[in-house]
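Q: Putative nucleic acid-binding protein, please. Structure only.
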Amino acid sequence: MDSRVRPEFAQRIVAIDEAIATRCAHLHIPDRRNEADALIAATAVVHGLVVVTRNTQDFQGTGVILVDPWRS
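A: Structure for Putative nucleic acid-binding protein:
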């Protein structure tokens, strides 16, 4: 994986930093969200990214811009 996949995606990997971790923690209060969904949402909010997913329900109320390519 490290020799083939990581170099292919190197420019598209966003590290989880303090800003993302803090935003993620705020998404858990008072709503206990799935950790992976909270990290995705926090990363998108902090970096101004769009979340493209069929599972839009889990991201409602997080502040992210959502696109469901199956409905668009």
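A: Brief note, in case it's useful. The beta strands are 50-52, 65-67.
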